[in-house]
Amino acid sequence: MATAEDIAKLTAAALADTAAADSPAALEEVRVSHTGRRSQLAEILASIGSLSGEERGIIGKAANIARRDIEAALATRKTDLDARELTERLTRDRTDVTLPGDPYPAGAMHLLSQVRLEIEEIFLALGYEIADGPEVETEHYNFTALNTPEGHPARSSSDTFYVDGAPGVILRTQTSSVQVRVMEARTPPLYVISPGAVYRRDDVDATHSPMFHQLEGLAVDEGLSLAHLTGTLKHVASQLLGSTEYRIIPDFFPFTEPSIQLLVRWIDRTGKSSWMELLGAGMVDPNVFRFAGYDAERWTGFAFGMGLDRIAMVRHGVPDLRMLFDGDLRFLEQFS
Ligand code: PHE
Q1: Looking at ligand 1, which residue's alpha carbon is closest to its atom 12?
Q2: Does the beta carbon of 176 sit less than 6 angstroms from any atom of ligand 1?
Q3: CA 141, CA 143: separation in Å to the nearest integer?
Q4: Residue 8 sits in which domain range?
Q5: 336 residues of the chain, pLDDT tens digit each
Q6: Alpha-carbon span 157 to 148, nearest angstrom
Q7: Of 234, 213, 236, which Cα lies nearest the Cα of 116?
Q8: Is the CB of 281 under 6 A from ligand 1?
Q9: Is residue 135 within 8 Å of 169, Cβ to Cβ?
Q10: Alpha-helical segments (H) within the chain
């Protein structure tokens, strides 16, 4: 049988344990052991009904006061501990918004993109438009429609990448493949350029790579002559390369007649100076107009295809074409 003294003792123990609990979890243990279903206090409260009248009054009152006091102390302590824990977490997790952010490396345009944009600007100023064409092309647009018959050496698999399992499909070897696509889609007069990647099974050396870039030009109008072509090329060459020495010599392409080639002076790694072919060009062959469905009696035109990578090399003194594709930041950052 519990006495009022027992109740005073267990109350004191409960209050002491409550004050000593230093975390919400520890406090919960205190709560269960002092006020839970199996606690001494719960037992006393359950036994009150069986006590005699006088005892019931004294013990019942004392036990209920004890319960109220202990629960009040537990609640106060819980509020304190929760607040302390929140403060600690906020301090621990605090973000200092004044700290500098993680550095994010700034990118820059690749040298080739810079050169391409510059050349595009020169042609846009001359009234040209920019057209696009697929890199995975058909033999038709890359060769046949460009007056390059079956059996022509350029079509051999030692020069051209053929797509496995897709007859007649290749990686374009020249941006000239865009010429007939443009002519089929439009009616003259037209002045169009088309830059992009091309692919050849070339031996790799300082001026050759299996993937490189060209910029095609096509002008179709009435009365165009070789003078318009060379005048355009000279203008573009001087805009791009300033006073670099260049020369124009006869050449051959199946889709132009006559055909020419423009070369510029180039100093290689060893300091040796030589001529490097920068572009091929010529007057559009009437057969190409026929493939495109144009009246070859009425329309005249010229076309050119320049090597973008080589222009970048000559302009910036890059000794090896492959540096443009290696992705070496020590090289690339020099042009950012
Ligand atoms: N496509 C030719 C080449 O890759 C260049 C060229 C373009 C020549 C247009 C004439 C006219 O060599």
Answers
A1: 280
A2: yes
A3: 6
A4: 4-92
A5: 688 888 999 999 999 999 999 999 999 999 999 999 999 998 998 888 888 888 888 888 988 999 999 999 999 999 999 999 999 999 898 888 888 888 888 888 999 999 999 999 999 999 999 999 999 999 999 999 999 999 888 888 889 999 999 999 999 999 999 999 999 999 999 999 999 999 999 877 878 889 999 999 999 999 999 999 999 998 998 898 886 788 999 999 999 999 999 998 877 778 888 888 889 999 999 999 999 999 999 999 999 999 999 899 888 888 888 999 999 999 999 998
A6: 15
A7: 213
A8: yes
A9: no
A10: 4-20, 24-35, 40-47, 53-92, 111-125, 139-142, 177-185, 226-241, 286-292, 308-316, 323-326, 329-332
> To test ligand 1's pocket by mutation, which of 141, 193, 199, 253 has the most ligand atoms within 8 angstroms of CB?
253
Give the rounded distance of the alpha carbon of 161 from its chain centre: 27
What residue owns the CA closest to ligand 1's atom 9?
A: 304
71 with 130, same domain: the answer is no
Q: How far is the CA of 270 from the centre of ligand 1 (A)?
A: 29
Structurally, how many domains does the chain consist of?
2
Q: Let me know whether 45 and 120 are in one domain.
A: no
Query: How many residues are listed for the chain in this entry?
Result: 336
At residue 325's C-alpha, the angle toward residues 236 and 209, to 5°, is 75
Query: For residue 263, is it within any domain?
Result: yes
